[in-house]
Amino acid sequence: MMTQTAQVAPAADNDQGDHGMLTQARRRAAFFDLRHNLLASGSAPAVREAAARHRSAGDLLVCVTADPPPGGATTHGTGLAADLVLYAGAPSAAAGSEVVVEAMVRLGLDAAQCFAYGDHREGLTILRVVGNPRVVGGDPLMAELARDSGWPVLPTP
């Protein structure tokens, strides 16, 4: 199910030269929930390092944001060079997971092989729909949920 405001768009600023990513079969994707503070100053290096590892492994890099900026799809300034940007509309928990699930279905990805990175409780639904969730940052609630669920927490200074 997809929310009315959800949109899927190839990222216009992907500088990796991989413009055929929608037709090229990839087995995994890494979803980065940018609707909150995922790239806050303390978390940014760990998130960018994770993105670089996924890029090296040939994974699809996908950013999830609330709404498209004027001028269209972009992750300019994030340092992630996303292959795809998903717009979840209002930053609700359900909207994020719906667009992620729809993207996995449309792209033929196995959810069990995909990764997701989130730092806020509204991103929990995204973390729960992939096989490899990762919590980022020092939010005490998220750290507790990660510990209880056996999810890794990305180290931040």
Tally of alpha and pi helices: 4
CATH architecture: 3-Layer(aba) Sandwich
Q: Estimate percent helicity.
A: 25-40%
Q: Kindly state the number of beta strands.
A: 7
Oligomer classification:
single chain
Q: Report the portion of residues in β strands.
A: 15-25%
Rg (C-alpha, Å):
14 Å
Distance between the termini: 38 Å
CATH superfamily: HAD superfamily/HAD-like
* Order of H and E elements: EEHEEHEHEHE
Stated plainly, the CATH topology is called Rossmann fold
Overall number of domains: 1
Structural class: alpha/beta
CATH class: Alpha Beta
What does this structure look like?
With 157 residues, this protein is an alpha/beta fold. It has one domain (7-17, 25-149): Rossmann fold (3-Layer(aba) Sandwich). It is built from 4 helices and 7 strands, in the order E-E-H-E-E-H-E-H-E-H-E. The chain has helices spanning 44-56, 93-107, 124-128, 140-149, and strands at residues 7-10, 29-33, 60-65, 84-87, 115-118, 132-136, 153-154. It has a 7-stranded mixed beta sheet with strand order 1-4-3-2-5-6-7, sandwiched between helices. Helix 3 links the parallel strand 5 and strand 6 (132-136). It is globular. The termini are far apart. The relative contact order is 0.22. Residues 1-25 have low confidence and may be disordered.
